[in-house]
Amino acid sequence: MRGLICGPKLAACGIVLSMWGVVMLALLGIFFTTNSAVLIEDVPLTDEDTFKDLDPPHRAYDVYQKVGYNCFIAAAMYVVCGLFSCCQMKLNKKKEYLVQ
């Protein structure tokens, strides 16, 4: 069958992992863009961002925004992987019908 790359079990696993990744990364993106204080340890701040800047919160907030956007981009990549897995699942079902 043309375009069939992975089997039904791998496609199902890809769908589940993609759904989990989209939800998790979308929530992280929301929390990072709202400058959640709980996630301060996950923000890659340097000494220049905190000590040498005259207005340190704005620089830290910019870093928060960048990390949040990166989470949204990663969530979009998981959507693409999930769509690929759905296509593979449909191709596997089509193959089952053609074989019988």
UniProtKB/TrEMBL annotation:
Molecular function GO labels: RNA endonuclease activity
Keyword check for Ribonucleoprotein: no
Domain of life: Eukaryota
Gene Ontology terms: cellular component: membrane
Principal location: membrane
UniProt keyword Secreted present: no
Protein topology in the membrane: Multi-pass membrane protein
Membrane-spanning segments: 12-32, 67-87
Record's keyword terms, sorted: Membrane, Transmembrane, Transmembrane helix
Subcellular localization(s) per the UniProt record: Membrane
Family: Belongs to the RNase K family.
PANTHER family, alphabetized: RIBONUCLEASE KAPPA (PTHR31733)
Protein name: Ribonuclease, RNase K a
UniProt organism field: Maylandia zebra (zebra mbuna)
Source lineage: Eukaryota, Metazoa, Chordata, Craniata, Vertebrata
